[in-house]
Automatic annotation (TrEMBL):
This is Uncharacterized protein. It comes from Amnibacterium kyonggiense. The lineage of its organism: Bacteria, Bacillati, Actinomycetota, Actinomycetes, Micrococcales.
Amino acid sequence: MDHIRDDGELLGRIERHGDGWVALDRLGRRVTGTTDLAEAEAALEELGLGYLAERWELETEDGSVQPVRIVEVGPERVRVKLEDFGAIDGPRRLWDLPNPAPPTLRQR
């Protein structure tokens, strides 16, 4: 089930796992192990959404590692762009990844 903040922002999902619950962030990654519902909800509230604005890297198909920023997270895909550090004339490159995000997308 979706876990939505009081302001209407989706923080992640909470899924049934055996006798308990597991919290998943917007990228489909586990935030908790199996726990009770209240703890899973609290973990997503504490995590918030700030991690989406952090520095990320993507290991591409050719094995190179590129600095990226997350620009969009939807139920089916995660869109990242090559980090341009604010340069208006920098190279533009976008990657569409599945959601849950693959392990090739990592926080730096």
